[in-house]
Design goal:
The structure is a single chain. The protein is α/β, with parallel strands linked by helices. The protein has one domain: Rossmann fold (3-Layer(aba) Sandwich). Helix content is 34%, strand content 14%. The chain is built from five helices and four strands; from the N terminus they run αβαβαβααβ. It has a four-stranded parallel β-sheet. α2 links the parallel β1 and β2. The structure holds iron/sulfur cluster (SF4). Iron/sulfur cluster binds next to loops.
Length: 145
């Protein structure tokens, strides 16, 4: 690639040409990203066969439905519970908190039974064990959509 050099006959244009994005926009975008809440999402392993999590990602990244209060979030992990009875979800939630998650989110397939109307029978135990493990300072969001 041929790079232009700066010389009196080839004056550099005003502004920062190293970035095609205006400096103010870049700063605003960075501010938005750094202020986004970081979340770790846990889904039902048995639902993986029938759902790729599309609506979960859409609501989380657009700040809608269960994410209206937080606004768009930064997803640091999207893991399954590890299979019945959900014991693996405890260590998985802890790992996501260790990696920066400020909230743990349970998808609606766990708490509401989407899309087949079959909520997780182990949900309350799983949620309570996770809260005990990660402590009270991490927000719990109990559905996605
Ligand atoms: S423990 Fe609950 S969330 Fe996990 S696979 Fe079983 S039914 Fe699904």
């Amino acid at each position: 690639m041929l790079l232009k050099t700066c010389s009196p006959g080839n004056a550099m244009p005003k502004g920062n040409i190293a970035s095609p994005v205006p400096e103010t926009t870049t700063r605003n975008q960075l501010k938005e990203i750094t202020q986004m809440k970081k979340v770790g999402i846990i889904r039902c392993q048995q639902t993986e066969d029938m759902c790729p999590g599309t609506t979960d990602f859409k609501a989380a990244t657009q700040g809608t439905l269960a994410f209206e209060e937080t606004g768009p979030v930064d997803i640091v992990g999207f893991v399954s519970c590890g299979g019945c009875p959900g014991k693996r979800a405890i260590s998985r939630a802890k790992i996501m908190v260790d990696r920066g998650a400020e909230a743990i989110v349970f998808t609606s397939c766990i708490s509401k039974g989407n899309p087949i109307g079959y909520p997780c029978p182990h949900y309350a135990n799983m949620r309570d064990a996770i809260i005990k493990k990660i402590g009270p300072d991490v927000q719990i969001i109990e559905y996605t959509h």
